[in-house]
Protein 1
Amino acid sequence: MQMTYLQAIGDALKEEMRRDDKILIFGEDVAEFGNIFGVTRGMLEEFGPQRVRNTSISETAIIGAALGAAVTGLRPVAELMYADFTMVAFSELFHCVPKWRFMNGAEYKMPLVVRCAMGSSFGAGSEHSNCVESLFMHSPGMTIICPTTPYDAKGLLKSAIRSDNPILFCEHKQLYQTKGDVPEGDYTIPIGVADIKRPGKDVTVIAVGLMVRRALEAAEMLEKEGISVEVIDPRTLVPFDKETVFNSIRKTHHVVIAEESNKTAGIGAELAAMIQEEMYDELDGPISRVAALDIPMPYNITLEKHVIPDAAKIAQAVRAQVERWK
Amino acid sequence: MQYTAEFLTKIYRDLYSVRVFEEKQVELYALGKVPGHIHSGIGEEGSCTGVMATRKEGDFVKISHRPVGAGLLAGTPLETMFAELMGRVGGNALGLGGVLHMTSLEKGMVGFSGTLGCDAPVAVGAGLTIQMNGTDNVSYVFYGDGTSNRGPVHEAMNLAAIWKLPVLFVCNNNQYAISTPTSFSSPVPNPGADRAAGYGMPSRVADGTDPLSVYEAAQELVDYIRAGNGPAVLECKMCRMRGHFEGDQQKYRDLSVVEQWKDQDCVAKMEKYLIDNEVLTAEEIAAIRGEVAAKMDAAIALAEQSPEPTPEDLYRNLYAE
């Protein structure tokens, strides 16, 4: 059935909480208000104030408490509202959560999901628009999931909640109201498996988050020009599904990476380096990165659009690959 | 308060065990058997001993970096602690965590963050588990006067208070944060206790060199917490007797003041109390000392037999299956 990305996330939370009473959610404004985007609406009424808890504005305490609850037997889903606020709790999220088991021993399991809303959203400015995934790719132990469709969001959130490892679950604000097919009943999607969102043969586009939709638009445009684009959505950045990506490169021999965060030291930097190290012989041209300009996100909406890649920019990068190197 | 001889003997044994652990830590470090840095807690054993005597089955505890020997009071096996201390694979974290991570979840220790203060909220999370489970257990968290100024400690206190969680915050005020005296870093005389009012929590100040004074204050607060009233703060006053880490020249402080604090040594005072009150004889005390030292040496010998971790061990604990 058709539902929005937002509904799919809400349904995953509710279905999991019905299944396991060790699961609880907490964060700023998640109870009566139902989270500022409406994701947790109705959950306080169904599960009560013990399992659906508002917090003070205390991001470090939210993450630290979620960690403490997770290692002592609960399965918390903590919410940080904007992904930008992961920075407030950076020490907890970078040092403690992913490394606790390594530092303290195998007894310590961390069934903890941290949900946050990432990305640009029409004038939210430079502290409410960030994509932070690449920062946490630098902290071994953190699993990072960025779903882009209602189907993926629901199935991956269920897997995340059932995992005994800590997970940063990045939801894109611009995707909340997008719709897609979601099957009835329970299903999960394995963590660490990419999805080929559109098969093609000329160029592989690895797109993350909102850029998946834009890459698909670009692929439509390019098809009319006779260029066949394969769009891969990694869905999980850590662990990264190399196999699906490498198989695609063996077919196309050309790679474009599209992401919404700043280009320097971004996701594309890591993926491009990894691909050239491991797949050099398969490449027929340099790897292109399409990313946000290295500038704080502007408040002015025209300039916000200018800073973030659109379908035309992704298409141009693909075209350049084909024209110059194919 | 009236105590049984059995209770007082247990307190002494605990106190002295932590003391010996701290001494052995210094010895092993001097022999080059311990990587990194250690932070000796000699002279500060009274606080953890008194507080931990109020524990019961199902309680959680988060110790501080000083004294790390407090972990043995939770019941963490000594040989595991020493193996972790020396970076051996027999440690609880395969020797990959180290001196600040000698923990046992089975014994109720929630783990340890090397960034001090980050784990105050972790203890709050353990308190949340207790509240959800509906028991009258307590989550104890030890921290220092220096750490009392960190944001996570304040956020943790606030969240524990608004959620009415069973957390006992124990501030070990040893008067120094590395080189910075508490009189400089804190605008109030009691950096633990004086902050409690801001979060609507009761507090007590105890003499950290006297485990019985600590025990009495802790018991009062623990009774309050177990009755479902929410968190509380205990501050224990003492002096850091050695440098921040081994090798610290301590040019920033007047060491004659530290010398004077030796009159307040928690172990010596406790021994005098036991003899004066005819709880134990000097011979009985000597016997306990011998037993504790022998146990410690045996654990060290076992830990030293444990091999170094291998590169394969690096990946064993990163993820749960």
Protein 2
Amino acid sequence: MKKKSVSLLLLWLLLSVSFISCTDHDVEPQAWLNNLETLLGQGTKSTVEGWIDAGLDDEKTKEAFDKSGDKAALFNSLKTAISIYDQRVYIEDWDHIPGIEKGNYVANGLKSGVSNASWANPDLDLSASDAANFADAKADELSAGTKIYRVTGGNPAGGYWTAQIPASVGDVIGGTAVRPAWNNFSKFYVYEVPAGQTLKVWRGTTAAQQIADGVINPFLPGKAEQIFIPFVVRDATFKTLVKEIPLPW
Amino acid sequence: MVNELSQIDHLFKELIALLSAESQVDPYNVQFLKYVEERRSLVKQTDGNQAKEAIRGINRYSDEFAFSDAHAKKIKDIIDSLYDLVNC
């Protein structure tokens, strides 16, 4: 009987401690969310909780709001972000954005546009604005049967492609230096050069890119090979041959 | 320098007008329009490398959008011209 009483007492103590721990754990982390709700209005807390449930780091989110001078603007940026990677840029959660490189960004893109004498067509030139996205670039003609690939959330028939299938989102964000603000990496496309034809492109190493305006560290390293298809090459026929395929990850 | 700033602003106005028209046709383009409007303010306040990076970003981001046949080439040409002006 005494043993049973002691066991019950110990069980009661254990449950009490667990209950107190649970309530302590619930109250403290919730305070910042409650304060945010008071500041920004009804629904704020549940929205932020939804983001955290979807994978946004709760500590980093709290930290970002704590140090933000304009919490409403931050909330709006997170709300209108196009992907979780884009949200992570706003809260500076660099550890959870694949492909980025720690260190200071140094621009390494080409300083001017490039022409190919043998094409003798200025419409096929690589403009300075596109050349800036290459560390090096050369004119190339893809032969019939060559497949090229594109990850995008928008235009299937844009200019930037790769000859290799990216293995991960990190390859796209880091290797081809695509900011999460620009692309939600939701769709994957392939284009195959038709029989009897070639495709005039620019091919080279992707230049580094800032991950966001004003951010020097970290940065997007580039270094992957990329292909740029001049605007005039991407005609109506080209567009019809761009096919959506399952994402490779 | 003043002439350059004036040209830059004129090009931004032209670009924004075209993107506004494109946004009427396809609301998906609104996000790019907003991006360009924000960078217009940024470029006005800065110069040199920051302005170049901002317009480089406009160009790279534009690749995510499909514009109408009537405006697509013009939009690309304006962005290229903007970059050429800051790429000194």
